[in-house]
Design goal:
By secondary structure, the protein is an all-alpha fold. Helices cover 80% and strands 0% of the residues. Helix 1 runs antiparallel to helix 4, helix 3 packs antiparallel against helix 4 and helix 6 packs antiparallel against helix 7.
Amino acid sequence: DLSSLEDMKSQLEAIDSELASLVDDMSDEDKQDAGEALSEAGDSFASGAKVKKKAKELADSPLGDTLTHATRLIGQVSGLKKKEKQAVQKLDDKTKKTIESLTDDASRQLLDAKWCHPIIGSLAALPKKEINSLVSKLNALSEKYATTLSDIDAQIKDSERSLCGMLGELEGSEADMAGLEKLCSLLGGGKNA
């Protein structure tokens, strides 16, 4: 029963796809000629009666053939939807009858398999999930602070010394040189450093 429902759904999808393809393959002129056989947006067919009426009007043209084909497909869709509705009702009735005929033991086994086992499995997985979350957060923090403050301080001092060395190679007026020497002494890379 369930497989026949799935077959009907796949047939409906195939027909819907074919109907959409028919509309997409129409030229703008054909879409205008089709008029009320198409939706207002012109991207799908209207009701089966409107398509059938327009197909009769354009019977001797390629567009009429397309609309006739669309009419047949729309009829198939209606028939399949009716069968699908009946199959769903039949499956619901069968399911209800099956559930009502279960023994107490079978009911408990079904509830256990359907509800208890998944819940127990999910609860058992919670600690592992939390531990994995904490481990990933710790790894992120470890990577974030991999460079220690003393490493950063050493890099800053190396950069200051290097900058002072480069500033020492500059030439300029006596006032400029005094300013550069003062800057180097502030950076800690002056002559005394």
